């Protein structure tokens, strides 16, 4: 996950640099244009820049969604482990986060990313709320079926 975060930061920095360079170039080009033809070229360059920025934003959103889905899958697998291997009928979010951190070699899991992913599991019905702070894994979970094979 740190590799993904580092990759995202590199992409963001590259986009910021490219955008700053494009702004400088566009400003210089705009101030020196004298004819309608040159202005038309400048508008085309701007349109390309806008499209590039939109595509970059879409790509960054996709990277974020993929990261969130992966975290949600790992949390669901941790829940299946708690239910089938540890024999828990219910668990807390913090128990899953500790289990996930242990599986990641003790690396801390980003709190916000964990909360987003856990919320995603709740919204999709993959994890069900029992009462305040206690949850269980949905019976239809593919991870639950897989974990039962090994239990």
Features of the shown structure:
151 residues; mainly alpha; Arc Repressor Mutant, subunit A; two-stranded antiparallel ribbon; 5 helices; 6% strand
Characterise the protein shown here.
- It is a single chain.
- The protein has 151 residues and is mainly alpha-helical.
- The protein has two domains: 2-65; 71-150, Winged helix-like DNA-binding domain superfamily/Winged helix DNA-binding domain (Arc Repressor Mutant, subunit A, Orthogonal Bundle), CATH 1.10.10.
- The protein is 75% helix and 6% strand.
- The protein is built from five helices and two strands.
- It has helices at 2-32, 36-84, 93-103, 111-123, 142-150, and strands at 127-131, 134-137.
- The protein has a two-stranded antiparallel ribbon with strand order 1-2.
- Strand 1 (127-131) and strand 2 form a beta hairpin.
- Helix 2 (36-84) runs parallel beside helix 5 (142-150).
- The longest helix has 49 residues, at 36-84.
- The chain is elongated and about 75 Å long.
- The chain starts with a helix and ends with a helix.
- The mean pLDDT is 78.
């Amino acid at each position: 996950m740190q590799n993904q975060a580092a990759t995202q930061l590199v992409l963001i920095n590259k986009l910021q640099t490219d955008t700053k360079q494009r702004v400088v170039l566009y400003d210089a080009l705009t101030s020196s244009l004298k004819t309608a033809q040159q202005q038309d070229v400048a508008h085309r360059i701007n349109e390309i820049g806008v499209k590039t920025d939109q595509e970059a934003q879409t790509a960054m959103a996709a990277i974020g969604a993929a990261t969130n889905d992966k975290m949600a899958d790992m949390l669901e697998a941790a829940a299946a482990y708690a239910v089938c291997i540890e024999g828990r009928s219910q668990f807390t979010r913090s128990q899953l986060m500790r289990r996930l951190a242990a599986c990641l070699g003790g690396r801390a899991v980003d709190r916000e990313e964990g909360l987003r992913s856990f919320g995603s599991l709740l919204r999709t019905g993959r994890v069900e709320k029992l009462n305040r702070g206690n949850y269980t894994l949905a019976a239809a979970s593919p991870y639950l079926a897989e974990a039962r094979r090994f239990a």
